[in-house]
Amino acid sequence: MLKLLILLKNFGEKMKFFTKKKLIFTMLILSICLNVSNTNAFTSKNISWWQNKKNTEKIIKKKHDIKNKKQKKFFKDDNDKIAYSLGITIGKYLTRTFQIQKTLKIILNRKYILQGVSDALDKKYKLSNNEIDRVLQLYDANVKAFSPNEIQEEIKNNGNIGKKYIQKILKQKGFKKTNTGLVYKIHKIGKGKKITNNNQIIVIKYKGQLIDGTEFDSTEKNKPLSICLKQVIPGWKEGLKYIKKGGKITLIIPPKLAYGSEIISGIPSNSTLKFEIELLDIKNSISN
Description:
CATH class of the largest domain: Alpha Beta
Number of domains: 2
CATH topology of the largest domain: Chitinase A, domain 3
Radius of gyration: 24 Å
Distance between the termini: 26 Å
Oligomer: single chain
Order of helices and strands: HHHHHHHEEEEEHEE
Shape: globular
Number of strands: 7
Helix content: 40-55%
CATH architecture of the largest domain: Roll
Strand content: 15-25%
C-alpha cells in the first residue's frame, strides 16, 4: 500500500480528495464489468450422495479445468494480469475512502467519472487546466468544511489509543522517544553509508502495521523498494537517519509524523503506525 500511496501522491497533491472519489466509483464499476462467472460442475444432475470417490474426483478436476480455461481466455498474458492486479489494488485502496465520503454525502455522477477517466487516457479534455484546478479546490474546500461526528470521534479515539500504546511500548527495552514524538528501536545499526539528505534514494524492505497488529503494507519477498527519501512520510525521514546501510529499525510513528487525519484505505484516521524496516542500500542524491 505505501508504494501505491506514493504513486498517488506524485500524481498531484491537489488531486488527493477528488481523485480518490472519482477512482472509487470507477473501480467499483470496472470491477463489475470485469467480473468473470465460474462454471459450476456440481449440479443435482451430475452428482449425488451415492457416487463413489473416483467419480467425484473427476467432477472436481473438470471444474478446475474449466476455471483454468476461463482464466486463460480472459488474460492473454502476464501483462494483462499485472494490469488487472493493479486495478484490484487501487480498488482495495480506495474502498475505505468511498465509505467515508459516502458518509459526507458527497455524490458524484458516475457517467462523468468514467468519461473523465476515458478522456484522460485519450488526452482529450473537456475542461481547461484552470477550470479543473478551480473545481478541485472547491471540492477540497467542501470536504474539509464537512466534519461529521463519526469521523471526529474516530480521530479522537485513535489519537488516545496511540498515546497509550506509545506509553506502554516505551517501557520495553531498547525503545527511545525523540523530541518530535517518534519512537524507535535499533535492532542493527549497520555499517558504512549513512543517509545525509532527503534527496537520496533508499533501498529497503519493510512491513507496516497498525498498533493492533494488522498489517496494511509490506514489500514482496525478494523485491525491495527503491524510493527517494523526500517522497516518504516524516517519520521515515527522521527514523532512517538513525541507522546505516544494512541496519534494521522499528519505528512507532505518531499521526503527525504519518498520515494524520487524512483518509487512507486500510489506515484509520489519526492512527499511530508501526514499521519494521531494513535499510539495504543508499544511492546517490537526485537533482531537486
